[in-house]
Every structure is written in structure tokens, then in C-alpha cells.
Design brief:
The protein is mainly α. The protein contains 15 helices and no strands.
Length: 358
């Protein structure tokens, strides 16, 4: 049963915390006097994932307890939250008011037809989100992912019990090795403790209504950056929602990944973090320079992909290399292309480590 206390804790740790962490980057983007909420929440989630990956990998490797990881991560998270609040608390009210004013101006400048299209898009997104709130989909991989999450809480271990046999292990075996470098299931354990909810309930009921809208927020970021027009972006968002709604032709399609297994790390990587990485690289490509905020954003999102899955750890450097080559050919910018490559090296290192372990 989900209680009011659970809902309050979910809001604090899965809405408020990502927002505050996202402000660390938001103040340094080109429109730092305003808040782009979609980018703020997406970057905040990437910071949470990266901050978890950094202590989780060595602690899993040496076999410390789950409680030790929980305490270490909580301290790191608290430090970054305090830093963000110190940097942003004074200007937050002004930025929020200016952001709301800008949104109102944009909506008032759009024709009624496009507003109707926007409402239709929001209705489709709400319908898609409701599919996983009120219906249940079970996936065979949950037998490993959520079992690992539950094992950490119940036994105070980090991947030291075999998820099928229950045997004690000196080191993770088989597919459990993937979670050594991509420990997202253990982050589910941490969030479960924070929100006082069972990991399965958290994954299947709470995460979908948070992550599905965040996926579309990332789609909006990409559309606005490429199209540079609110009307065209609304059309792009509407078409994307329709395509996703009917893209169940394969278990590898975007629609299946988003609307059936969004709580799994590989899905979050595929539909949120990798598109967010594309957004960052597109900004580098369009602006023809790699600014410090874009470099550290790319570094953070790349590591967030590593935390989520081995696929994400591999795709981040591949994406970076493609954009670096395109930037070099089109813009003739050698330095920014090199910086793109450097920013995804840590993610590539996790991909290599996973292959060596596997």
C-alpha cells in the first residue's frame, strides 16, 4: 500500500532532489537567467546516477555492505545538494518568475491550432503513462534486476547472492557481472530505502509516471534545439508521441522500451540519457564550440549511461565519436571535436572494464 508519507518521500527524493542537482548545470547554460525545466530534471537525474556510480563500482568490487554504500552515497548526495542550494537559492525565485513569464509569452504567441495540438500531445503522454500506472507488465529480466535490488536491502550485500540459486558468492557470477560496472539496480535499492517502498513497487508503479514524461521532455529539448521554433517543436512532439504509441513491432523498438520496461536501466539509457547526450552534442555542433558547461554535462551524462547499463556505456563513446567526426568535417573545429572525444572516455572505460570482467 502506498501511503501519503511514501508520496511525500517520492516527491522529495525523486523530484525535488533531481531538480536541485540539475540547477548545478542550469546556471551555466546560455540562458542561465531562466530555468529550462526539462533540461534541469534530466541533468539532475544524470548527476544522481553519476554520483552513485563513482562510489558503487569500487565498493561492489571489494564486496562492502549495502549499508556502507547507502551511507557514502547519502553523504555525497547531501554535499552536492548543499552546494547547489548555496549557489542558486538567492536567484531561484527570480529565475522561476522569469521562466514562467517566458512560457506564458511563448504559449500566447502560438496559434490556437497548435495549442490544441499541444493539449492532444499531453493527453497522449498521460494515456501512455497510465498504461504502466494502472496495468502491469512483467519482464523476465526483472528476475535479475529487482532480485538484486531486494537482495541488497534484505541481506545487506552487494551482488553477493546468486539471484537464481541463492548461493553465497565471493564475486558476482554470470550476468550479475554486468551490474558491477552498471549498478543501477542497487540505486533502486537506495531509492527504496529513501522512500520506504518495496523495490518492485517503486520500479513498476512510481518510476513510470516520472520517467515517461521525462523522456518526452528530452524529446522536446532535441526538437527545440534542432527546429528552433515552438510551433514546429509542438508538431515534432505530437508526431513522436503517435509513433511511440504504435511502435510495438519489436521488443527492441522505442515504444516497447518506453511503455513496458521503462524502469530498467537500459531503457532509461535508450530513451532519456542517450537522447540527452545527443542534445548536448548538437548544441556543440550548432554553437561550433565546446563550452565548459557542455563538456562537464557530456562527461556527467556519459557516466550516467554507464551507471544504467553496459549498452549505455558503449553507446556513449560511439555517439561521441560520431558527433566529433561530424563537427570536425562540418565546422572544422579540431579542439571542440577532441574535447567531445575526451568527455566520453570515462564512459568508454567502464564499457571496457565490463567486457574484461564478462
Amino acid at each position: 500500500m502506498i501511503t501519503p508519507l511514501n508520496i511525500i518521500l517520492v516527491f522529495i527524493f525523486m523530484v525535488l532532489v533531481p531538480f536541485i542537482l540539475g540547477l548545478l548545470f542550469e546556471r551555466f547554460f546560455e540562458n542561465g537567467d531562466k530555468i529550462v525545466f526539462s533540461r534541469c530534471f534530466a541533468m539532475g537525474l544524470s548527476v544522481m546516477l553519476t554520483l552513485f556510480l563513482i562510489p558503487a563500482f569500487p565498493m561492489i568490487y571489494v564486496g562492502t555492505s549495502f549499508r556502507a554504500l547507502l551511507y557514502v552515497y547519502s553523504v555525497i548526495l547531501a554535499v552536492f545538494l548543499i552546494i547547489s542550494l548555496i549557489l542558486n537559492i538567492k536567484s531561484l525565485k527570480t529565475k522561476f518568475q522569469k521562466t514562467v513569464s517566458t512560457i506564458k509569452e511563448e504559449l500566447l504567441s502560438v496559434d490556437k491550432l497548435y495549442l490544441i495540438l499541444l493539449l492532444a500531445t499531453l493527453a497522449i503522454i498521460a494515456f501512455q503513462t497510465s498504461l504502466l500506472i494502472f496495468k502491469m507488465h512483467t519482464d523476465t529480466d526483472d528476475c535479475r534486476f529487482l532480485a538484486e535490488s531486494l537482495e541488497a536491502i534484505e541481506n545487506n550485500t552487494l551482488l553477493r547472492l546468486h539471484v537464481i540459486t541463492g548461493d553465497e558468492l565471493s564475486f558476482p557470477l554470470g550476468e550479475m557481472m554486468k551490474e558491477v560496472t552498471a549498478p543501477y539496480p542497487l540505486l533502486i535499492s537506495v531509492l527504496s530505502v529513501y522512500t520506504r517502498m518495496h523495490p518492485t513497487v517503486l520500479a513498476h508503479v512510481i518510476l513510470p509516471p516520472l520517467l515517461i514524461p521525462l523522456c518526452y521532455a528530452t524529446v522536446y529539448l532535441l526538437g527545440k534545439t534542432i527546429l528552433k521554433d515552438t510551433k514546429k517543436t509542438i508538431c515534432y512532439l505530437y508526431i513522436s508521441s503517435i509513433v511511440i504509441l504504435f511502435s510495438f513491432e519489436s521488443i527492441y523498438s522505442w515504444g516497447y522500451t518506453l511503455l513496458t520496461i521503462i524502469w530498467q536501466g537500459r531503457s532509461i539509457s535508450a530513451v532519456i540519457m542517450l537522447p540527452l547526450l545527443w542534445y548536448i552534442f548538437i548544441k556543440v555542433y550548432v554553437e561550433e564550440k565546446m563550452t565548459p558547461v557542455l563538456f562537464f554535462a557530456s562527461l556527467t551524462v556519459g557516466l550516467a549511461n554507464s551507471c544504467l547499463s553496459g549498452m549505455g556505456a558503449l553507446m556513449a563513446p560511439i555517439t561521441g565519436c560520431v558527433f566529433a567526426f561530424a563537427n570536425l568535417v562540418k565546422n572544422k573545429k579540431l579542439i571542440s571535436s577532441i574535447l567531445i572525444g575526451i568527455s566520453v572516455i570515462p564512459s568508454g572505460m567502464f564499457a571496457i572494464i565490463q567486457k574484461l570482467l564478462w
